[in-house]
Amino acid sequence: MEKLLEIDKVSFFYQTKKEEICALQDLTFSVDELEFASIAGPSGCGKTTVLSLIAGLLPASSGSILLGGEKVGKDNHEKIGYMFQRDHLFEWRTIWKNITLGIELQKPKDKDEKLEFARQLLQKYDLYGFQNRKPRELSGGMRQRVALIRTLVMQPMLLLLDEPFSALDFQTRLSVCDDVHSIIKSEKKTAILVTHDISEALSMSDKLVILSSRPATVKHIEMLNFNGETPLLRREDPKFGALFDFVWKKLTNENKTT
After folding, report:
1. 257 in a domain, yes or no?
2. 3-class secondary-structure state, position 26
3. I want to staple 220 with a disulfide (CB 3.0 to 4.6 A). Which of 109, 131, 210, 246 is the partner?
């Protein structure tokens, strides 16, 4: 596979009233086409900042970020789709109006093709019968599917997922992880997930990037190869527990506690 995203020696500084803070230092890793990567690290290390840099929402202080060989910036921001911690569905708009919001705002030249693609996605992922409903009428899991489809409608090259399951209860979270993973793989998309949940990162990913505490650097990169096609089945792999402990120690430098 070719590299879709290349992050090379990226550092990021920000200024407080008293001093300049280094949040990220010489960050280097890549993500291949069709790869699902996760980023894990201690709380406050700058995981969401990494996504903001990739999305072009923040400028890197030094280093380079390339998407498809081109520098990330305003000229190619539409090639990146972003799912936030909350689904950010507008309660006064129907599901169809929420899903087609990007088309409405950006007015792309291929508007009709994208609208047809939106209909196909609704049908494919069992939401077509809900297109005239309001978000409050849907379950948490269905809302997340709608949010993902809204992002996919614009056909981005790269999906950025910032703790998209954190607002869900544990049982729903497991089910939605399976749904989101299945949709991303079915639509042949490259994705990066930021999460505090080690099990979630391991079960969904092909690659896990572990960051150090701030200033964050890449502490370790683990390639993952579990048995099972879904995140739920991957959790049952005999290797899962040992790798969980390995990642825990990398993050905390101590043994897992119960």
Report:
1. no
2. strand
3. 210
